[in-house]
């Protein structure tokens, strides 16, 4: 694994939000109390970016969290030439998937919700936002700490199919919906963890490649940020 490296990391969860350069920042009050209790609706694009939020406003919780994590990566996707963006894969892993939106759609069937009743929709939103054109894969894992997306990323990188992989682990079930679910269907807390992995070049921001749970890797690296390049 020595030829592979973690190129960028970000994390959002009850503990805070940030990346491996800035470290984790606390949620601003009064939002902090809401997210600590699993109320995720108040999360807004303006917390992570000053860019246009019109598309973000119509998204479900899973897409909001996933897109915020991708933005927090600060991976320079917007500056990449098109040929490079064609070689960036996007892999998503999730335990609860779009369950939050599925329940809401059953309660109130609306066309605007139907588009988000697939766990892979977050992958499409990320690709649209950053114009990424590489392959994509969505994995619904048997538990919420599987790390399957990272395993797949290694295989694709080893085969030379892509130059980098954006791996996203996302659980987005808020308190209202979680209370309706049987206990075995509830994810162990909400989070969005994004990790960009690729071939090592010796850049100062790089971290040694570590297999395992995306959420745990990202949380650990964001608690101990490296100096920016």
Keywords:
single chain, 229 residues, alpha+beta, Peroxisomal Thiolase, Chain A, domain 1, eight-stranded mixed beta sheet, 10 helices, globular
Rg from Cα: 17 Å
Distance N to C terminus: 23 Å
* Main sheet attributes: strand count, strand direction, barrel closure: 8 strands, mixed
Please trace the helix and strand order, writing H or E for each element. Answer: EEEHHHHEHHHEHEHEEH
CATH topology: Peroxisomal Thiolase, Chain A, domain 1
Output mean pLDDT. Answer: 92
CATH superfamily: Thiolase/Chalcone synthase
Tell me what the CATH architecture is: 3-Layer(aba) Sandwich
Your description of this structure?
Strands 1, 2, 3, 4, 5, 6, 7 and 8 form an eight-stranded mixed beta sheet that branches. This protein has 229 residues and is α+β, with helices and mostly antiparallel strands. 33% of the residues lie in helices and 21% in strands. It is built from ten helices and eight strands. The protein has a single domain, classed as Peroxisomal Thiolase, Chain A, domain 1 (3-Layer(aba) Sandwich).
List the topology elements.
Blueprint: E1 4-13, E2 16-19, E3 23-25, H1 31-36, H2 54-57, H3 61-72, H4 82-85, E4 88-94, H5 99-107, H6 111-114, H7 121-130, E5 136-140, H8 148-159, E6 164-171, H9 175-178, E7 191-199, E8 207-208, H10 214-223
Parallel strand pairs: 4-5, 4-6
Antiparallel strand pairs: 1-2, 1-7, 1-8, 2-3, 6-7
Helix pairs in contact: 3-7
């Amino acid at each position: 694994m020595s030829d592979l490296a973690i190129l960028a990391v970000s994390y959002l969860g009850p503990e805070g939000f940030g990346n491996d350069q800035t470290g984790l920042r606390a949620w601003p009050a009064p939002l902090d109390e809401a997210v600590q209790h699993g109320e995720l609706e108040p999360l807004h694009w303006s917390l992570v970016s000053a860019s246009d939020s019109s598309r973000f406003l119509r998204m479900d919780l899973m897409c909001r969290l996933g897109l915020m994590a991708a933005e927090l990566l600060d991976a320079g996707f917007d500056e990449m030439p098109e040929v490079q963006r064609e070689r960036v894969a996007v892999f998503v892993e999730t335990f609860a998937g779009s369950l939050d939106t599925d329940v809401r759609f059953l309660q109130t069937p609306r066309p605007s919700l139907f588009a988000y009743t697939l766990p892979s929709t977050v992958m499409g939103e990320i690709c649209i936002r950053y114009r990424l054109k590489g392959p994509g894969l969505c994995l619904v894992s048997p538990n919420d700490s599987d790390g399957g997306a990272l395993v797949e990323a290694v295989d694709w990188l080893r085969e030379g199919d892509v130059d980098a992989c954006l791996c996203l682990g996302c659980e987005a079930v808020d308190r209202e919906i979680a209370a309706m679910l049987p206990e075995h269907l509830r994810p162990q807390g909400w989070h969005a963890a994004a990790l960009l992995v690729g071939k090592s070049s010796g850049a100062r921001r790089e971290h040694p490649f570590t297999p395992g749970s995306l959420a745990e890797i990202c949380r650990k690296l964001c608690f101990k940020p490296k100096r920016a390049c």
